């Protein structure tokens, strides 16, 4: 598979959407139950897992390029990923504000 900053940004957005859908589903079926210690553990575990997924999607290829001594490509790759993700975020926020 060829690494692509646009694909990484799209994967990050899809991952966030999947987590949001999962959380919405969980809250809809557990709306009348009290919070437990396991809820807190699950939420913190999801935060840590999500940070690891985002770190991989945003930083893995730039770090590989840095190790290969390709600084300009690494910076370009990271900024492209960040820029595309920013555009996706703006589109989602625009769609939310229209509703």
- Tally of contiguous helical segments: 3
Q: Which strand-content bin applies to the residues?
A: under 5%
Low-confidence parts: none
Q: What is the H-and-E element order?
A: HHH
Count of individual beta strands: 0
Helix content: over 70%
Q: What about the largest sheet? A: none
CA distance, first residue to last residue: 38 Å
What characteristic shape results from the CA principal axes? flat
Kindly give the count of domains.
1
From the alpha-carbon coordinates, what is the Rg to the nearest angstrom? 17 Å
Helix/sheet category: mainly alpha
Mean pLDDT: 93
Question: Can you describe this structure in just a few lines?
Answer:
The protein has 99 residues and is mainly α. It has 3 helices and no strands.
How would you describe this protein?
The protein has one domain. 85% of the residues lie in helices and 0% in strands. It is built from 3 helices and no strands. Helix 1 runs antiparallel to helix 2 (37-67) and helix 1 packs across helix 3. The model has no long low-confidence stretch (mean pLDDT 93).
